[in-house]
Amino acid sequence: MMRIVLLGPPGAGKGTQAIRLAERWGIPAISTGDIFRANVSGGTPLGEQAKRYMDAGELVPDEVTNAMVRNRLDDADTAAGFLLDGFPRNPEQAVELDAMLAELAVTLDAAIEITADADAVTERILKRAEIEGRADDREDVIRERLRVYAEKTAPLTAFYEGRGLLVRADGMGAIDDVTERIIAAVEGR
Ligand code: AMP
Q1: Which of ligand 1's atoms lies nearest the C-alpha of 14?
Q2: Is 128 a catalytic residue?
Q3: What is the pLDDT of residue 50?
Q4: Is the CB of 65 within 6 Å of ligand 1?
């Protein structure tokens, strides 16, 4: 049973690692970015609300995001645990996550921070843009997403470190090596 949040700048490999770690621990990987993108493609009201923020590299408003996560955590498959990829993204969301978990009478086991330097992540995202064609993988939007990460999301590492939950792992190098590094760091605590 694992309840995990995954932190790290855009392009650090969170999505890739989230899928592998979730498989390892037999829990669902919940990516708020993926859920938003599916809603944008599906033309749902949620997608319509989120799209302009995503296209600009800004955070979707907390009311919208928090309600979406709250619904997802109510699904039966999270009883075995979960890995949140891309939530929380600011201190207000972290406080809201605490409230959701308290209602479910569960606690987090770890906050994993995947680290990567800014030049490397920009290069990775631009490479991904060629393959996936994400609307927000443009150099100007990438710069804004990195700025938002540094300003709003990075402070969460100190928040979770203060609770003794932070596990840092270097996100550079081969995908398999990074996965093994994270597993060793989390399971070896
Ligand atoms: P990601 O796939 O995690 O890089 O997320 C893509 C975009 O979705 C972000 O740039 C935001 O616009 C939006 N998004 C994803 N997660 C959140 C969140 N927790 N809070 C607000 N916006 C989010």
Answers
A1: 3
A2: yes
A3: 98
A4: yes
Measured from the CB, is residue 25 less than 6 Å from ligand 1? no
Q: Name residue 157's amino acid.
A: T
Give the pLDDT confidence of 71-93 residue by residue, as tens digits.
999 999 999 999 999 999 999 99
Q: 134 CA to middle of ligand 1, Å? A: 13
With contact defined as beta carbons under 8 Å apart, do 169 and 114 qualify? yes
Token digits of residue 124: 């990775």
Strand partners, 31: 85
Instruction: Please give the DSSP secondary-structure letter assigned to residue 78.
Output: G
Question: In which order are the strands placed within the sheet that holds 110-115?
Answer: 29-31, 81-85, 2-7, 110-115, 166-170
Q: What is the pLDDT of residue 1?
A: 84
pLDDT for residue 119: 85
> pLDDT tens digits for 145-175?
999 999 999 999 999 999 999 999 999 999 9
Number of structural domains (the chain) is 1
Average pLDDT over residues 171-184: 96
* Domain interval for residue 105: 2-187
Catalytic-residue membership of 14: yes
**For residue 54, is pLDDT > 90?**
yes
The domain that holds 16 is classified in CATH as 3.40.50.300
Evaluate: CB of 11 within 6 angstroms of ligand 1: no
Q: Containing H/E element for 31?
A: strand 29-31
| CB 9 less than 6 A from any atom of ligand 1 | no
